Amino acid sequence: MDFGNFGVVNFTKQAKSVAFVDYLAEGKLMGTVCKKCGKKYFPPRMDCAQCLDSEVEWFEINSKGKLITHSTVNFGPSGFEEVQPYTLGIVEFPEGVRVLAKISKKIDPATIKAGMELRPVPQKLNEERLTYEFEV
Amino acid sequence: MKEDVAVIGVGQTNFTRDCGMSVRELCFEAYKDAAQGLNLDPKDVDASIIASAPEYDKQRTPAALVSEYLGFSPSPTFYLETVCSSGTTGVRVGYSLIKSGLHDIVVMVGFQKMSELDSRIAAQVMGRGDDTMFSSPFGTTMPGGHALYAQAHMDAFGTSEEQMAKIRVKNSFYGSQNPKANYKKRLDLESCMNADLVCTPLKKFDCCANCDGASAVILASADKARKYTDKPIWIMGTGMATSELNWSSRASLTNFDSVRNAAKSAYEMAGVGPEDINVAEVHDCFTISEILAYEDLGFAKTGEGGKLIDEEATYHTGRIPVNVDGGLLSKGHPIGGTGGSQVRTIVQQLREECGDSQVKDAKIGLVQNVGGVGTYANVIIFGRD
């Protein structure tokens, strides 16, 4: 996998954090934690700015989190013509990180409310492309 | 009043779709407007700062081209970018170039020609103002980012869609009086409330429009300022701060920490507080942004921004007039051209040149200009003699 396999549209090919995409292929959403100071990162980063250190470990985000905010986008950027409208949400997880992703179309938009519990579910968009979305 | 660095000229083009001009011609129009009546030889300009967002430009390194077209070469010029707040970042850097003693007269020209991109490509370009590795792959957009803040603010404080609509009603009232505004139609509450949803909870009239436009601000040291004008407007304070680019990395989604930090610096430097501001220009790229600005600048308590518009306190006859030129919502928002236009309005207010929308006895004015979804923030406080 290269990083460009992540998402509906992507602008990055090479990244030290490419394992993020490999983990998605295994069905896991992962963040990183700095081995030295223990700070947790999502989005994952391979470098800790506090320690100037690049020794990190991966941790899985698989619990239910609480929805902080959301919006249904009716007019998306180029590349999203076929998938709009779609609902974006930011969810706070007990692992101590916040994650932005699409909220599953299985959930009726009228029932989406701040505070509702959601979990991240990695998905294959097609043979090559991977993403994750929030489900109940 | 600190008399270190003054604004001696402000100007802007009409903000419009399909302006019929090239970038260099747009910049010329803005500078010509700013230099009107100053009798300033282009060779007396010690340096120029060209502010814009490069992803809209076809011309590589436009600074030298604009400098050449305005007759400033061979004095130093450079390009500067903090997306939508590029213009005021240019004013801040211009201030420091003069304050340091390096230069006496610095010109900031900000521009954007957005109508050459189709709207989906423009949406993508703007969406890349969030984290391109981890957020843009989900289809983030600038309206979408502000909508996330709007929804969070509504859930936390009970801010309503009607309060947001009232912001647009006010700004369209002043936009209808501004000959340089892109959108001159007056809107009533009903048409704002019934408009199509762009991204929940924001509707069409909650959003500003892309457009073409340029603005210019001429800055001078105290000695030079007195030579060129008898109405110098002084920079009393400038604050700038940044929030995480990735929205999910931020502590708050109900206010812009960048604006709060920039405001704190600017108020401290100017030695004034929010209660001393007579007129303000804030970055209302969306109606929710103006409500957030009321709170982040201290005009209202946290969570009570909506009340300020309910009370009509931000009309030009109110307690704290805000965006009495139409704001970005009605003027239009040509990214790099926006900050200079905000500075222009405040300078004109302090010079008492604003006709029907003139705020009585305006002595201290504030500009708040934000880049991205609260990513960069500039707050600049101006005062008159």
Please count the helical segments of chain B.
13
State the strand order across the main sheet of chain A. 4-5-6-8-7
Read across the widest sheet of chain B, the strand sequence of neighbours is: 3-2-4-7-1-8-11-10-9
Instruction: Tell me the number of strands of chain B.
Output: 11
SSE pattern of chain A? HEEEEEEEE
| Low-pLDDT runs of chain A | none
Ends apart, CA distance between termini of chain B: 7 Å
The percent range for strand residues of chain B is 15-25%
Average pLDDT across residues of chain A? 96
Quaternary status: heterodimer
| Cα end-to-end separation of chain A | 29 Å
Specify Rg of chain A, calculated over alpha carbons: 15 Å
Question: Quick one: biggest sheet of chain B?
Answer: 9 strands, mixed
Report the sheet-strand fraction of chain A: 35-45%
Q: Biggest interface and which pair forms it?
A: A-B, 39 and 39 residues
Q: Compute the gyration radius of chain B: what is it?
A: 19 Å
Tally of alpha and pi helices of chain A: 1
What overall form of chain A do the CA principal axes indicate? globular
Explain the overall architecture:
The complex is a heterodimer of chains A (136) and B (385). Chain A is mostly beta strands and 136 residues long. Helices cover 5% and strands 35% of the residues of chain A. Chain A contains 1 helix and 8 strands. In chain A, strand 5 and strand 6 form a beta hairpin. The longest helix of chain A is centred in the first third of the chain and has 7 residues. Chain A starts with 18 loop residues before the first helix and ends with a strand. The relative contact order of chain A is 0.20. Chain B has 385 residues and is α/β, with parallel strands linked by helices. Chain B folds into 2 domains: 137 residues, 3-Layer(aba) Sandwich (Peroxisomal Thiolase, Chain A, domain 1), CATH 3.40.47; 217 residues, Thiolase/Chalcone synthase (Peroxisomal Thiolase, Chain A, domain 1, 3-Layer(aba) Sandwich), CATH 3.40.47. Chain B has 13 helices and 11 strands. In chain B, strands 3-2-4-7-1-8-11-10-9 form a 9-stranded mixed beta sheet, sandwiched between helices. Chain B has a two-stranded antiparallel sheet with strand order 5-6. In chain B, helix 2 links the parallel strand 2 and strand 3. In chain B, helix 3 crosses helix 13 and helix 6 crosses helix 10. Chain B is globular and about 55 Å long. Chain B starts with a strand and ends with a strand. The chains are: A mainly beta (136), B alpha/beta (385). At the A-B interface, strand 4, strand 5 and strand 6 of A face helix 4, helix 5 and strand 5 of B.
